[in-house]
Amino acid sequence: MSDPQQPPCADQTEDSDGAPVLPPFRAVGRSEAPADAGVVGRLTSTVERLSRELAQARAEADGRALVELAKGILVERLGYGPADASRQLEDLAAQSNVSVLELAADLVNQASHDRIADVARDFVATAAEPSLGLRLRSAETGMLIADDVQAVAQSVLEHALRPLGAQAVAIWSANADQSLTLAGSAGFGEQEARLWRHVPPGVPTPARRALTERAATAYDSPDAARLPSIGQRDITGGRLAVPAGVGGRITGVLEICWPNGLPPQSQSLQRQFETLAELCATALESRPAGDTDPAAAPQTAELLELIHGLPDPCMVLQPVFDTAHLPTDYLIKHVNPRFVDFAGRPRTAILGARLMEAYPLAAESGGLFEKIEHVLATGEPFRSPAMHLAALVDGVPLATEAAVNISRHGTQVVVHWRTMDGTARVASLLQHAQRLGRIGGFEQNLRSGEIAWNDTLFDLYGLAHTADPISIEHLAAHAHADDEHTIGRFLRTLLHHQRPASTAFRLKRADGIARHIRVVAEPVLNQDGRLTAIRGAYQDVSSQHWTEVALAATRDQLAQTEQQSAERSRLALQLQHAIMPPSRGPLELHDLRVAVRYRPAEKEHLVGGDWYDTVDLPSGHVLLCVGDVAGHGIDAATGMVALRNALRGLAATGAGPAQLLSWLNSVTHHLTENVTATAVCALYEPGTRLLRWARAGHLPPLLLRDESAIHLTPISGILLGALDQADYEEGEIELQSGDTLMLYTDGLIERKDRSLQASLDHLRITAQAHAPSRSDAVAELEHRLDHLLRHSSADTDDDTCLIGITVQ
């Protein structure tokens, strides 16, 4: 029976009964302390610092991926551009007093209908842990940007499991022969991961038991399980093995290790672990663990290390056999970093292709294919100081002379060459020039009638590559009738006067598409001065032609567009002034005195959607609100009118401010077109002087009491129109006689060179530093508003709305 304390590896043996016998651990003792302990200490601290910086960089990369998902939601749902979505996300996070990552996770969870969103929603409802959605989404985005399963394991541990107290994680890939491959791990030492890279069939481990039972298996400790597993000597706490699969098919196991006992089991935790296992299964599907043969991996690694050090092009071929086990072709499995195709094609066009697809001319007698076949069959290396290599580029054969070496390594063949001239470089330049310039070359033999076209020219004419090329004498038959005389002059210069010529014409293709073409050609004369051939090129200049047409049309429309823009700005400004006059006299509502200052944008084209309202409701309450519609112009002004009127109507129902904002969000999302806005809504009860308020992504109100100023504690609430359904938090405060409450929009404080918090602090200090109180309470309130507007440090030239409410 195998010792449960020993790890399986590739070189294990079997006992007389056929059971696997695991090799013993090699005893490792602690060496004596080095003489220069200070140097070792500095090196140790440097390694630890670099490890922390690497972990932080990975976490930041995962966070950036999550933020990009949230930006994509704003772009798709609200029609923002990428830059506007980024700014909106940052502003909302600052106004909601949460981090950008937490707001991004909240947006993704509310917009998604997947397993992570369900787990986060249920767990928050029962355990009130808002960070769960962020942890699971960060783990998921970490997997999306990971290059391999090793990076996936690191992301799962750092984002999702370490906050639950886990110390290490292993992702096992289940193989068809009942063996296991360690596809990725985190939290274990490199030596331990190498020893457990492969678990042979028949070895009982927690991961194997989870696969057999198709259910999660938990153990308080490795000793209690009496099953060998990775890291059991160093991590002696609880273990959990969860089958990982998608679509009903189990492809691996997620094994989690704790330094102490298992965490308290709950249905919520179980759902989290199942969700993480499903994400790991997806990673195994898209990022396989690799070769399951542990003995083949070192050989391949040594071969790749060898060819990567060669200074000349080199490729590794894997033979492809037929049913009779005879090689029919060779797969180009690897190329070294110095690989340059002698035909000028990029590496991506060669790597992964078959030899006969990439180099069909290699099949000629005595050519490259025949030499490779001989080396594979006999194992005898082939070397030639000068071998003919040929390839087809756009239907044109290219050849070069090269020193070629071919050798067999196991079941693979290595081909290495060194070209004698610059054929590869010239071919590459020619190919890229033709591709970028959409140029098709041709040559026509006037004696034999033979015509050679490259592939690009067939594409320009819209013909199949097997079609017959068109003679240059018949060019007029394929051109627009109005270009017949132009083509006639071109042909006379070329064929009769035997001089180089060029012209532009409109090509009529068989598929009905018209292209603007420029043709350049030159005559080829023999020793007797007789015309024998024509060489030239066609270039598609349609994009240049239509650019010139578009520029001409743009010049004609520019004046009309400017006039329309000025008219829209004038109408928007008139509408804004009709609804929101720049100033308004003090208003008495019960025991409240209300004054307003409204400062429109200086530039007419920046007319915005700032709005305010104060209404004495039938219930005896006073409605106080201020808002800001995103954007400028006529759309922002009409959106402002719609939201202001809708809130007035909704307030008549007697609902609280949080419910009013929830209804107003639905109105914004469904009854307006791509409108988003921020708002503060408050209800004041004169009898108790109780103020209840809620906000939708807006700046918090400012309270002035006893010559001091404070911002009301921010409460959560997403902006209006971002989602079809949203819930809002409600706060309340009991006002006192002499209190003054300030409601305002961001045009009062926003600066490009200062953070939002710094601007809020500046506003609070400015409000406290106003002139001494006046005997006239009305004049005192008016003075406070004028003082804040006068000392505003905003530099965005945006609308500004400011409401002052004083309790008498």
From TrEMBL:
Highest taxon listed in the record's lineage: Bacteria
Keyword annotations from UniProtKB, A to Z: Hydrolase, Kinase, Transcription, Transcription regulation, Transferase
Organism for this UniProt entry: Kitasatospora indigofera
Protein name per UniProt: Transcription antitermination regulator
Transmembrane segments: none
Single annotated GO MF: RNA binding
Signal sequence residues: none
Location of the region described as Disordered in the Swiss-Prot/TrEMBL record: 1-24
Domain PAC: from-to ranges: 501-553
InterPro entries per record: ANTAR, Bact_Sigma-Reg, CheY-like_superfamily, GAF, GAF-like_dom_sf, PAS-assoc_C, PAS-like_dom_sf, PAS_fold_3
